Amino acid sequence: MKIAHINMSDLAGGAAIACYRLHLGLLNSGIESRLFVLNKLSNDSTVIGLKNGQIINRIQEKIDKIPLKLYPYRIPFFFSNGWLAINTLFSRVSYFEPDIIHLHWVGNSIVQISKLSNFNKPIIWSLHDLWAFTGGCHNNYQCNKFKNNCGECPNLGSKENNDLSKKNFRIKEKSYNKIKKLTIIGLSRWLTEMAKSSHLLKDFNIHNLPNCINTELFNIQTHIEINKFNYLPKNKKIVFCGTSDPQSTFVKGFVYMQKLIENIDKQDKYILLLIGKEQNYSLNKTNIYFIDTIKDELAMIDLYNIVDVVVHPSVQENLSNVIMESMSCGTPVVAFDVGGNSDLIKHKNTGYLATPFNQDDLIEGIHWVLDQKDHGLSTRNRNLIIENYDTNLITPKYIKIYETVLR
């Protein structure tokens, strides 16, 4: 069995990490798997990147976004048309002669939606956001027009029925109907149900099957390279938030950390650790510390083990790698009760699900976790991930879907 995965990158971004972990799981199970990407960052010979693919994609991305200039009142969010693609990627995949094409995150003109059927192979599509069944939006921001027909897109600030979202919607509808066999995988229960309710995908086979994680690697550590964190106070609990920039997209939810930041000096129970550089935040606070962006998995595992709680304030979330990784290391997470967060966090059992988007409840969740730290919370976190998301458990389920599709 030969599986060709297609994704933007092998290591950059949540979808890339999830895709690469599945790819490795398949290889270890004896499946002939290849990962085709535009932006190759690893030295893995089973990952096929394109020469200058990232540069070409940047050019195509700029071209792809030209129509958005017609919508000056659009919300500043991620919108992809999928009109263009790199033909070299198609030829590379075809040369491999796969039995199945497995799509992952393919926005930004990685594949040309109107020509997906040219693969002439069964296609499995793992949904990392909503883009596959919308007129271009990766996040819906409370808009449910994808259930019937896009048009008059509120995210574009459009009042025209036959707008850009409607045109993209029609292109996808025609393209999907030409595909030899299309199977959809929702990585969270939330996104699975969204896909089932969508006009574009509701008539296809849709499965709920999550990402996987190596729980032997992401583990509770007793020996941590403490020198990396020797500037942090030893007598306080550490609250960590991985949002890398206060100016990042609204969906990351950093705005909902504002009340916590404003009151951080008034308490002595914990400190707040943020990823980024202090000058980017302009925060004159004594209990806020900063750490540079971490790209090394082992260093990230050390970080999960040294902090007491992770705050993940996203306003829309599929199945977060950060939450899964943190829990696998025994560190509880506080997040809003949105999207697929409830698949991982069991309220007041493995973590805390705050009322969306209540900043007071987010802070209450932090206090609850810190008070529960010595009451089996770490063990319950890790056990949930081992029992439901371990690579050795999830990979055979993907293989079973592949076999079913080929039959």
Describe what this molecule looks like in 3D.
This protein is of the alpha/beta class and 407 residues long. It has 2 domains: 2-212 and 390-406, 3-Layer(aba) Sandwich (Rossmann fold); 226-388, Rossmann fold (3-Layer(aba) Sandwich). It has 12 helices and 13 strands. It has helices at 14-28, 53-64, 87-96, 164-178, 189-196, 258-262, 297-306, 321-328, 341-344, 359-372, 377-389, 391-406, and strands at 2-9, 32-39, 47-49, 100-103, 123-127, 182-186, 205-208, 237-241, 270-275, 288-291, 309-312, 333-336, 352-354. The strands form 2 sheets. The protein has a 7-stranded parallel β-sheet, sandwiched between helices. Helix 1 (14-28) links the parallel strand 1 and strand 2. Helix 1 crosses helix 12 (391-406). The radius of gyration is 22 Å and the shape is globular. The protein starts with a strand and ends with a helix. The model has no long low-confidence stretch (mean pLDDT 90).
